[in-house]
Amino acid sequence: MAQLAGVSQTTVSLVLGGNKQGIVIQEATRQRVLEAARTLGYVPDPAARRLAAASNNLLGVFSFTATFPTDPAHSYYPFLVGVEREAAARGFDLVLFTGSSSGGGRAEAPGALERVRLADGCLLFGRHVPTEPLRRLVADGFPLVHVGRRDEIAELAWVGADYVAASAEVVRHLVAAGHRRIVLVREDDDAPASTDRERGFREGLAGTEGAVVRVRTPAEELTPEWVRAQRAAGVTAFVAEETDTGAAWRALGEAVTAAGLRAPDDVSLALLGSPPPDLPGDGPVTGFDIPRAELGAAAVRALTDLLAGQRPGPTLARCPFRAGASSGPPPGVPR
Fold first, then answer.
1. How far apart are CA 119 and CA 93, in angstroms?
2. Same domain, 206 and 217
3. Which of 91, 195, 263, 266 has the most beta carbons within 10 angstroms of its beta carbon?
4. pLDDT single digits (tens) 307-330
């Protein structure tokens, strides 16, 4: 076709592709290319045109975790269930970007996130997200939606759970049961999910004495001796945050058991979220349920809105309270 029109192959591609780059092409040249296409019976390849337009009905999923959440026991797995169902209902396929899963650090490498451009847009999961690579993608207009509140990039769309209100409700439940000294155990970082839970914890105290303990290595810092010291100081209830590893909750439970205490008879335990499914238990834990599948579906809806040229507002989902069996009145208070 290029030979028939007397132009380069690049010029042919520009004309037949609609010249989205805005390169100046003489009208006579454009007409020669179109006439050559008609003469040769040229029919555009639909697949090639979708690729040229960067629209191929593919949604990406990128996880900033050490293990990609395809194991049903992983806390992110229900999100993926919701994502898959909603994507299928809307006619999209999924591309799972697993390159960050060999330790998490590779997501920070220069250009590591650029591969998400293979998809039309991408969903992001993870507590710790590299801001600058995301800022560049957002500035380029690439559609992104983060699952979880993210305010550091104003243009980044997100859907999240209302951890503030849910955490406050859990603490108010403990206060209503008679607890007057409560300790929150959380990871020592500034992930929005952690700061939201701490904010809710403080709001729920409503004048009751509370303390926040930040731990870097829960298994080493939350010891039986630490639990006994807290109990001797009058603490009757411990609250832990849920994370994708469940490290704080695991360590707290092990320390309480090793200290010779039982919940809820000797001490009350509550979790700002749900326990890891692999942990044994005597019954449901006091806490709240995160609507993970629903949030995954909401993230897909937000991403398809972006692809359609709309600007979705933040979604903040309610987390229903779970009374559980791990908490009760403090020792000595009638049940």
1. 10
2. yes
3. 263
4. 999 988 888 999 999 999 999 999
